C-alpha cells in the first residue's frame, strides 16, 4: 500500500508531503481544486510520461516521491529479475528536469519507464470514469471473467504457445510465397542452368580459345613469317647464325689479350647459344603449325557460345558465368529442400494447434464455471445498490479463431428492469447503472486480487442518496482487505472513510497553489456539511453531517 507521498514543484503544488494509512481514505474538494493533480502526480510515480508543463517553476526540477509498503505482496522475485534492491518499504522517485528530461528511481536505483510501469501493475489500480466506459469492451469483460475463473496461468501458457504458433505460421506463409514465386520461374531457371551446364565451361578457357583462334585464323601469315625468319637465320653463307659464328671466332683470337676482349667474347658466345635456341624454337613452331579449318570452326563455335552466354547474363568472363551456374543450381536445390521444410513447419503448426485447442478448451471450461458465480455476485451487490431487477446473460461462443486470450467470443448482455429484453451493456445501461456495475465488479475482483491499493476517481457519478450510502459501505468493506481511496463529491460516501483528505486551492499574491490536508474530526464535519448545503452551512447540514459520520 502507499504510505506517503511528497510532491515538489508540480503543476499548482509548490511543496506537499502527506502520509496515508490503510483502510478507506476519502479525498474531496471543489471542482478544479487539484484532485486531478494528485492523481497526475501518482500517475507519474507509476510510470506515465511527463513534459515541461508538469513544472510549476520552469527553472527548477519537479520531484515526486512515494513510499510503498510491499512486504506482504511477494515482489522479491520481480526485484531480483530486474536487478533492483528489494525493501519492504520501497521508495519510488520521479524527477522531471527543466530541460524536459525525466528520471525514475526505485530505492535509489535508476530505472526506465517500462520497469516502473511493470512494477506499478502490482501496486495501484487507479479507476477512472473512462475505465467505467471500458467495461463495455469485450477484452475488459474477459479479464473480469478470467479473474474469477483463475485463468491467469493457463492463459499465460496459451499466449506463449500462441506466439510460437503465429511465428511458425508466418514462416510457413513466407516459404509458401517464396515457393510460389520460385515455382513460376523454376522452368526458366532450369533452362538457364542446363544451357550453362551444356556449355561445359572451364575457368580460363576463354583466353586459351581466343589465342588458339588467332593462330589458326592467321596460319598462312604466321607460317610465312616463321619460315622467312628461319631462312634468314640459317642461310649457309649470309645467315645470322653463320655471321654470329664468324664474329665469335674473330673475338676468340683476341680474347686472351685483355679482359675487355674476353668479356666481349663471352657475350657473343652467350648470344650465339641463345640465337641457336630461338632458331630451333622457330623451327619447332613451324613444324607444329597446321592449317586446320575444322578445328578453327570448332573453336569459333565454342567462343560464340561463350560470348552469347555472357551477353545473355550481362557478364564479361567465364568465371562470372560459372558463378551464375552455381547460384542457379543452389536455388533449384533450395526449392527442392523447401518442400521438406514446409512439411516440417506444417507438422509443427498442427501439433501446436492441438495444444492450443487443449488450452483454449480449459480456458473455456473455467469461464463456463465462473460465469454463474460472477453473475450471482453481481446481481447480489447490485440489489443492495438499488437495482433489484438487474440480470446478466453472459454468452460464450467457441470459435475457430485463436484470439489472444483463447478461442471464445463473448456477449455480455444486461437487463436492468423486469420485462425488458437483454441488450449489450454499453447500449442499455445508463451512466449511473454503469458506475454501480463497475463498483460491483471491483468489489468482486478485490476478493481475487492481491493488489495492495485501489483508487476510485468519482465512481459515484450518476448516483445519490441511499445508493451512495451503500456504495460507500461496499468500498468500506473492500478496504478490509486492501487500501481504498475514493475521490468523491457525495457526502454519503465521504462519511464512510476512515480518514478524510481535502484538496483546496488558494491564491497567494499572483500565484495559485493547491494543497492536500488530512482533516480533523471537527473539520471533517464542516467539510461534509458544506458538501450537503454549500458554502453557507446550516445547523441541519451540520447535524446531518454528524449523523452520516456516526
SSE diagram, text form:
Elements: E1 2-10, E2 13-19, E3 24-28, H1 35-45, E4 62-69, H2 76-81, E5 89-96, E6 102-106, E7 109-111, H3 113-120, E8 124-127, H4 129-133, H5 138-149, H6 152-198, H7 205-217, H8 219-234, H9 240-254, H10 259-288, H11 293-313, H12 318-384, E9 391-403, E10 406-415, E11 423-424, H13 425-428, H14 431-448, E12 453-457, H15 465-478, E13 483-487, H16 491-494, E14 499-508, E15 511-518, H17 521-533, H18 539-549
Parallel strand pairs: 3-13, 3-14, 8-12, 12-13
Antiparallel strand pairs: 1-2, 1-4, 4-5, 5-6, 6-7, 9-10, 10-11, 14-15
Helix pairs in contact: 5-12, 6-12, 7-11, 8-10, 9-10, 12-14, 14-15, 17-18
Protein name: DNA repair protein RecN
Coiled coil: 199-236
Pfam family, one: SMC_N
Task: Kindly describe this structure.
- This protein has 550 residues and is α/β, with parallel strands linked by helices.
- It has a domain of 192 residues: Rossmann fold (3-Layer(aba) Sandwich).
- The protein is built from 18 helices and 15 strands.
- The strands form three sheets. The protein has a six-stranded antiparallel β-sheet. Strands 8-12-13-3-14-15 form a six-stranded mixed β-sheet.
- A hairpin with a 2-residue loop joins strand 6 and strand 7.
- Helix 5 crosses helix 12, helix 7 packs across helix 11 and helix 12 crosses helix 14.
- It is elongated and about 155 Å long.
- The chain starts with a strand and ends with a helix.
Amino acid at each position: 500500500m502507499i504510505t506517503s507521498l511528497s510532491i515538489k514543484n508540480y503543476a499548482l503544488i509548490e511543496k506537499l508531503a502527506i502520509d496515508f494509512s490503510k483502510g478507506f481514505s476519502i479525498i474531496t474538494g471543489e471542482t478544479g481544486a487539484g484532485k486531478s493533480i494528485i492523481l497526475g502526480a501518482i500517475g507519474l510515480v507509476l510510470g506515465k510520461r511527463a513534459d515541461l508543463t508538469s513544472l510549476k517553476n520552469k527553472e527548477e526540477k519537479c520531484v515526486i516521491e512515494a513510499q510503498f509498503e510491499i512486504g506482504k505482496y511477494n515482489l522479491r522475485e520481480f526485484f531480483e529479475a530486474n536487478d533492483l534492491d528489494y525493501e519492504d518499504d520501497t521508495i519510488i522517485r520521479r524527477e522531471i528536469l527543466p530541460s524536459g528530461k525525466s528520471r525514475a528511481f526505485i530505492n535509489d536505483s535508476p530505472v526506465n519507464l517500462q520497469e516502473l510501469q511493470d512494477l506499478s501493475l502490482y501496486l495501484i489500480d487507479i479507476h477512472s470514469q473512462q475505465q467505467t466506459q471500458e467495461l463495455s469492451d469485450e477484452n475488459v469483460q474477459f479479464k473480469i471473467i478470467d479473474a474469477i475463473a483463475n485463468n491467469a496461468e493457463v492463459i499465460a501458457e496459451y499466449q506463449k504457445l500462441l506466439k510460437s504458433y503465429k511465428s511458425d505460421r508466418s514462416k510457413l506463409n513466407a516459404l509458401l510465397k517464396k515457393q510460389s514465386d520460385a515455382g513460376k520461374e523454376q522452368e526458366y531457371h532450369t533452362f538457364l542452368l542446363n544451357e550453362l551446364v551444356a556449355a561445359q565451361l572451364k575457368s580460363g578457357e576463354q583466353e586459351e580459345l581466343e589465342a588458339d583462334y588467332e593462330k589458326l585464323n592467321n596460319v598462312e601469315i604466321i607460317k610465312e613469317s616463321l619460315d622467312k625468319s628461319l631462312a634468314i637465320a640459317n642461310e649457309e653463307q649470309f645467315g645470322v647464325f653463320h655471321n654470329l659464328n664468324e664474329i665469335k671466332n674473330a673475338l676468340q683470337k683476341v680474347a686472351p689479350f685483355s679482359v675487355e676482349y674476353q668479356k666481349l667474347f663471352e657475350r657473343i658466345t652467350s648470344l650465339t647459344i641463345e640465337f641457336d635456341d630461338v632458331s630451333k624454337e622457330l623451327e619447332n613452331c613451324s613444324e607444329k603449325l597446321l592449317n586446320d579449318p575444322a578445328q578453327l570452326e570448332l573453336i569459333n563455335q565454342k567462343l560464340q557460345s561463350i560470348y552469347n552466354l555472357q551477353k545473355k547474363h550481362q557478364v564479361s568472363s567465364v568465371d562470372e558465368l560459372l558463378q551464375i551456374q552455381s547460384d542457379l543450381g543452389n536455388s533449384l536445390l533450395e526449392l527442392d529442400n523447401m518442400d521438406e521444410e514446409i512439411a516440417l513447419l506444417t507438422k509443427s503448426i498442427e501439433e501446436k494447434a492441438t495444444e492450443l485447442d487443449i488450452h483454449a478448451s480449459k480456458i473455456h471450461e473455467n469461464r463456463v464455471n465462473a460465469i454463474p458465480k460472477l453473475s450471482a455476485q453481481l446481481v447480489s451487490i447490485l440489489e443492495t445498490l438499488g437495482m433489484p431487477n438487474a440480470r446478466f446473460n453472459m454468452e460464450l461462443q467457441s470459435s475457430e479463431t485463436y484470439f489472444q486470450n483463447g478461442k471464445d467470443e463473448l456477449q455480455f448482455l444486461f437487463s436492468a428492469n423486469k420485462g425488458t429484453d437483454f441488450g449489450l451493456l454499453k447500449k442499455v445501461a445508463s451512466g449511473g447503472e454503469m458506475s454501480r456495475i463497475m463498483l460491483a465488479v471491483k468489489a468482486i475482483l478485490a476478493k481475487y486480487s492481491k493488489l495492495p491499493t485501489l483508487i476510485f476517481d468519482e465512481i459515484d457519478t450518476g448516483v445519490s442518496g441511499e445508493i451512495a450510502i451503500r456504495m460507500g459501505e461496499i468500498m468500506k468493506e473492500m478496504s478490509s482487505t486492501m487500501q481504498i481511496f475514493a475521490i468523491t463529491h457525495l457526502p454519503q460516501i465521504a462519511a464512510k472513510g476512515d480518514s478524510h483528505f481535502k484538496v483546496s486551492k488558494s491564491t497567494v499574491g499572483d500565484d495559485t497553489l493547491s494543497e492536500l490536508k488530512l482533516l480533523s474530526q471537527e473539520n471533517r464535519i464542516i467539510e461534509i456539511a458544506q458538501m450537503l448545503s454549500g458554502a453557507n452551512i446550516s445547523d441541519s447540514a451540520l447535524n446531518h453531517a454528524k449523523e452520516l459520520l456516526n
